[in-house]
Every structure is written in C-alpha cells, then in structure tokens.
Fold:
Amino acid sequence: MCEEVYRERAHLVAHLSAIYPSVRVDDPGEPEAPTVVTVFLPTGPVGWHVKDRDLALFAHVPYGENHYDGYDTAEKYRRLDAATRDLAARRE
Structure:
C-alpha cells in the first residue's frame, strides 16, 4: 500500500477511535507499523496497525489491552460494515 493511502487510512481510523471506545497496544512483531489501535464497535472489536509517523493522530487513544478475538480482515470489515449500517439506520 502506498504511503499516502496508509496516511489517509490512519486519519479515518483516528476519527473512528474518537467516536468509539478504543485502545492502542504495542506490537513489536510488526516493525513497519508497531502500534495496533483497536476500536470497540457495537458489532465487535476491529483493529489496524499504525505507523510511528501517524501516532500523533492517536494521542487521544489510551494504551490498554487489545482484546483480539481472532477476527480476520474479512470479519473486521463485516463488523465495520454492520456498524455503519446500524448507525445509518438510526439516522433515517
């Protein structure tokens, strides 16, 4: 993924993490993006690795426990899509 796209994604994840309860944890196994931000959606937790250069976007997110439940990328986006549909339905 090109650097600009990672930066754009970081902005969107930072926005989500300001809306929903969230934590960040260190993941030394991913030196390219050593921080994971987990957002606790009503539909389940979802997380993204964040590069060091983008950490300032997440100053509002406290360190905590990840609560990773084994979801894969497809499940992460199913949860995000379901949360989006639920939120949109409440606005109709």
Observations:
- The longest helix spans residues 73-91.
